[in-house]
């Protein structure tokens, strides 16, 4: 399936309690590329992901357009901030959840899941229940479950936040490789993650929330930490975020 660009055009959003978050927000997320959303806590990054996925519990004006339109539900894979692993399934079965729900019995999927678990350093935990795993292990499991879906649009809300620095870098590389060619929207608080992973970075902020900065980075993610695009943009983005959060 062709990846789609996502365009928000003058989107305004109010919650059921009457509070308003966006007021005429416009932005574009390029097809088949990774866009990272940065911005202070509470500026609406997760809500924006929910809007794109179509599950937001709010009143929306303006338009959200997919180009080309990838068709009905099922086009997005979603990874939220909670891992939502099913406690009665092993980690392997959780990673295979989408395939199980669709009734797929292809042994190749099981091999693929085991391979990903090994790449994520979780080979020894394949048979463990989520309750016996650390937060970081569960988050890696949830990430693999999302990556297994191979959808044209991947929405990921702080997918590496519970990981130590080295595991984080390894999983960023794995994720970048497996989502290449999909339209990825990645919410993060980690500027280094954004400059390594993104083709486009959008910084949200202000009241009402708007686009404070938009940046298209050269080269193919994941970039090494010493790539020129990383060193050129890390400091200025950090400064901008510090100003936005004060
Ligand atoms: N259902 C809701 N009803 C009322 N207000 C809501 C609702 N959902 C979110 N909000 C408010 O909308 C704002 C944006 O929330 P959101 O979770 O999208 O922010 P965020 O940028 O993702 O934050 P963080 O970086 O801390 O995860 C917050 O002020 C939040 O309290």
Automatic annotation (TrEMBL):
It comes from the Bacteria. Keywords: ATP-binding, Nucleotide-binding, Transport. SMART domains: AAA (SM00382). Gene3D superfamilies: P-loop containing nucleotide triphosphate hydrolases. It holds the Pfam family ABC_tran. InterPro entries: AAA+_ATPase, ABC_transporter-like_ATP-bd, ABC_transporter_ATP-bind, P-loop_NTPase. Residues 6-231 form the ABC transporter domain. This is ABC transporter. It comes from Desulfofustis limnaeus.
